[in-house]
Amino acid sequence: MNGTNASYFPEMTNLLKDICNDIAKKIIKEGQPIVLIDAFDWYREVLSLFAKQVNLCDSCMLLLENGMEQEAYLLARSQFNNMLWIKYICEGEDDSRVKEYFYQPHISQVLSNRNFKKMITDFSDELDERFLEAGIMERLDRGIEENTQVLIQENIPIKVKSIAELAKQDGNLFGMYVTFYNEGSRFEHSDMSKTKLYRKQVAEAYSPAQAFVFDLGESDKECWVSVFRCSFMSIFFAFESLWNRVSNREEQLFWKTEYGNAAYTKEDFQSVLWKMAICQEMLNEC
After folding, report:
1. Cα separation of 26 and 262, whole Å?
2. What's the rounded Cα separation, in Å, for the pair 208 and 167?
3. CB-based contacts of 229, cutoff 8 Å, min separation 6
4. Cα–Cα distance measured from residue 55 to residue 238, given in angstroms and rounded to the nearest whole number
5. pLDDT (mean) for 55-82
6. Rounded CA gap, 204 and 184, in Å?
């Protein structure tokens, strides 16, 4: 694998990294103490999701700069999943959506423990000894019971919110979901049509399936642009959702008080949106 910058459009990758840096400094306030009241639980979770969104986008750009668009696709898909939660929470009318998000780990723990119990029951003869140690079933049952009680108290059903469910927020998102997951699964599950791209023909008389050399730096421009577009659109939709929420419903975040400056200025958001518009124009010309 070559070590050079294999970005097809280095100006675009640099601009998107610059956008990520602006979001980290101006919106997430990286390194600065943040104190929120209970009414802003939604904001705490959205900022936390945004921290992940920025890291995923940065990592995706790093892979694209090294001509590794197939591997970057998986990170872009994680960005998409992350964005769906940000949008879902930001567009909620009350605290029910953030509450639903907050208790997802409890739901996952119940389902995970149930799966472990089934695995131990059905495949005990094939399992490592650590899965058969004394008291493991009791611990799994206790975990199921404790987490179930928490969910019952909060009136949360024991059902994981699926990505498909989140994507059905609007037609455009669901269209992205269908396209993204169909294509992404081919990379994730090592579809032959994708893995053969690593084989380079070495003799005209023979096909790349008969005589070839492996080139781990082989890159495909069309795929590269597709991955960049997915990564960019994910962070754009996430940021747009946050901007719409704070500008339309959380104006107090822009107010100065007797205790200090406002949390944000509108310029903080608008400067990022301006750079995103430039990035979109560059992408349209690819």
Report:
1. 12
2. 39
3. 283
4. 14
5. 94
6. 32
* Predicted pLDDT of residue 186: 63
* Prediction pTM value: 0.84
Residue 135: pLDDT band with limits 50, 70, 90: confident
Tokens read off for 39: 């009414």
Tell me the CA distances in angstroms from 87 to 17, 80, 134, 210, one per residue in order. 21, 10, 45, 49
Instruction: Tell me the torsion sign for CA atoms 272, 281, 182, 217.
Output: negative
CA distance 77 to 95: 27
Query: Which amino acid would we find at residue 232?
Result: F
C-alpha torsion 254→255→260→265, nearest 10: 30
The domain spans of the chain are: 10-95+162-284, 104-155
- Residue 166 · residue 83 · CB < 8 Å: no
Could you tell me how many residues make up the chain? 286
Identify the band that residue 127 occupies on the pLDDT scale cut at 50, 70 and 90: low
Q: Report residue 75 as tokens.
A: 């990170």
